Amino acid sequence: MMDYRNEPHGLFFMIDNKSFYASVESVARGLNPLRSVIVVMSEADNTGSGLVLAASPMAKKLFGISNVSRQYEVPDDPRILVVPPRMNLYIQENLKINKIFREYVADDDLFPYSIDESILDMTKSWRLFGKTPESVARRIQLRIRREMGLYTTVGIGENPVQAKLALDLQAKHDHELIGRLTYETFPQYIWPITDLEKVWSIGRRTAAHLQRLGIHSMRDLAMVDPYALRAEMGLIGTQLFALAWGIDRSQLRQLRPAKEKSWSNSQVLPRDYQVQQEIELVIREIAQQTTSRMRHHHQQAGCVSLGIGFARAGEADDGRSGFHHSCRLDPTDNAQTIAATLLRLFRQHWEGQAIRNISVGLSRLNTSRGLQLDIFQDPHRQIKDERFDRVIDELRDRFGKTAVIPASSLMPGGTMLRRAALVGGHNGGNSFD
Amino acid sequence: MGGIALIEAQQEAELIYSRIVPLFTAQWHCQYRIDVVNDQYGQTFNFFMGIKRQNHRERSIPLHTLRTTDLAVLERVIVALQQQTQLSLNFVDFGHVRWPVSQRWIH
């Protein structure tokens, strides 16, 4: 057996909202989130016929609708209620929920993990709220149900990874919606699992790799020689071995967000783009937007990269599915210079394929310390260009992203205007609610 | 005070109506309905347009949210809205209560 004495023994809750978007929409309509048959469908330009962002538990159960189903996969049944997404509303609701969590842990012990999941380090505070961890979890669940109408699922563990697995593998099937794992019970509940992809952090490729090594269950993974696994899979091997034993030494409080080393933006186009002018227009729009984000952080880029994904029609006659190229340049935060460099890259490598995906990246960043004049160009022009960008930024900060736009964005193919109202690529909801 | 609230009710109703117009396409075998929800959790009144075509999925599109729990305000908005549209109104989660001014049952 493993010696767990030196491992961290805390108490962590991982709390998520059951079908969050669909539940929020149910409550807003006076429906019970566990009984309603509701599907949140995004009909943004680039989702094709429409994409299911969330389905209520009943919609999943009765009609087998899963997230990211396509519109045509959802049966045309009058019992199903289809609603558009309101991303801004979900963000607000998430903030409200985290505010409730703050009454149970110190601010430093709350770690929002995604739009509907948070990790609470209850180690120091849980005894204030109940006799057992389960009763504290129940108390938080009831509170959120009472104040917001939403159902939450709670995974409890001695460290974050146990809490996450308890949430994914136990709580979701528990009728109280609570699951709990400890170092002691971990082998009993986790080792029998043979469908490795179900386990957090194991994806399709990793699962296939493990299968090739003769590892077909979590027990197999726990019994493997960790040094051999490391030699075969690298650092990931060690991590997987720790996972199989429910070990997680991460100190959430010491986690720092990765230092931002690049800025990038990508988008899926609403249709296949084939006309050079239209493609270049979108590249220019994305360049503008990314550069402006970078400028807000007072940085300049010394390297730009362009990624192009071909449409399925374009792949067939070529074999490649796209290309990705980058290019150095003198550090700049000038949108025109960056756009021009990107267009040059594009023209060098594009051979007329239909395109569905464009990404732009800015890297090799340094802090902008004023303008470095180029002796080969008119200095007044250079200063003017610089000031021009700043004025545009200021106008957009004060009056919104669409306050000033290049006239070219009104030409066929431009996506900027329609995307400006989206949040995370989906409808944000009515703007004057 | 009453005057200001009245103007607001008018504006709110117009906003709601302006969002109804593009959605109401008057198709055959299609029911249109305005849902007014008393959202006790959010402490708001939520407006949705319900569109139900025979044998098809039902759609529900958010129109507006009134950030108040005052039935008198809602009553004024509803009265103003009814001057613009005759679509049927469906009141959800109001319980058995009367409108403060007209004293009719809310249903």
Task: Explain the overall architecture.
The complex is a heterodimer of chains A (433) and B (107). Chain A has 433 residues and is α+β, with helices and mostly antiparallel strands. Among the domains of chain A are: 20-88, MutS, DNA mismatch repair protein, domain I (3-Layer(aba) Sandwich), CATH 3.40.1170.60; 191-253, DNA polymerase, domain 1; 263-427, Dna Ligase, domain 1 (2-Layer Sandwich). Chain A has 15 helices and 14 strands. A 5-stranded mixed beta sheet of chain A has the order 5-6-1-7-8. In chain A, strands 9-12-10-11 form a 4-stranded antiparallel beta sheet. In chain A, helix 3 (87-101) crosses helix 4 (133-148), helix 9 (226-233) crosses helix 10 (235-244) and helix 11 packs antiparallel against helix 13. Chain B has 107 residues and is an alpha+beta fold. Chain B has one domain (2-92). Chain B has helices at 2-20, 71-82; strands at residues 30-39, 44-53, 58-66, 88-92. Chain B has a 4-stranded mixed beta sheet with strand order 3-2-1-4, covered by helices on one side. In chain B, a hairpin with a 4-residue loop joins strand 2 and strand 3 (58-66). In chain B, helix 1 (2-20) crosses helix 2. Chain B is globular and about 35 Å long. The two termini of chain B are 28 Å apart. The A-B interface holds A 27-30, 39, 74-78, 80-84, 86, 147-149, 429-430, 432-433 and B 15, 19, 35, 37-39, 41-42, 46, 48, 52, 54-65, 92-93.
